[in-house]
Amino acid sequence: SKAEKDPRKADREEVIRSLNEKTGKKYNPSTESTKRLINGRFREGFTVEDFKKVIDNKSKEWLGHPKMDRFLRPETLFAPSHFEGYLNESGDPPEVDELTARLGTVL
Question: What is the mean pLDDT of the chain?
């Protein structure tokens, strides 16, 4: 069956459902780039709960922010270079000035 060939399908759908619910966006769990990003983090040992924590942390910080809201997307949140750092943030949003200063080099 298809589920046996793609054992992570339900987990990916749960991750993207969580992202869409938190952000009001409409990402598709079955696009190739999204599958690759999420499967890559699963291969590194991360869990659905880890994804949800990253989505929660960054949504609290970025949702509705004029510069940062657009980065609430799979290719930013789930990128190998960002994911673990986002996961380990406290989840307390920094002041916007601090956020802008910290992220100025990234943008």
Answer: 88
Share in percent of the chain as helix, strand, coil (round to 5): 60, 0, 40
Dihedral sign of CA atoms 93, 34, 80, 6 in order = positive
Residue 93 is encoded by which pair of tokens? 């949003």
How many angstroms separate the CA atoms of 64 and 50, rounded?
23
Contacts of 99 (CB under 8 A, 6+ apart): 61, 65, 68, 93
Predicted TM-score (pTM) of this structure: 0.81
- To the nearest 10 degrees (0 to 180), the angle between helices 48-62 and 32-43 is 120
The burial of 64, by beta-carbon neighbours within 10 Å (0-12 exposed, 13-18 middle, 19 or more buried), is given as: exposed
Backbone dihedral region for residue 64 (phi beyond 0: left; psi -120 to 50: alpha; all else: beta):
left
**Cα–Cα distance measured from residue 60 to residue 23, given in angstroms and rounded to the nearest whole number:** 10
Q: Are 72 and 23 in contact (CB under 8 A)?
A: yes
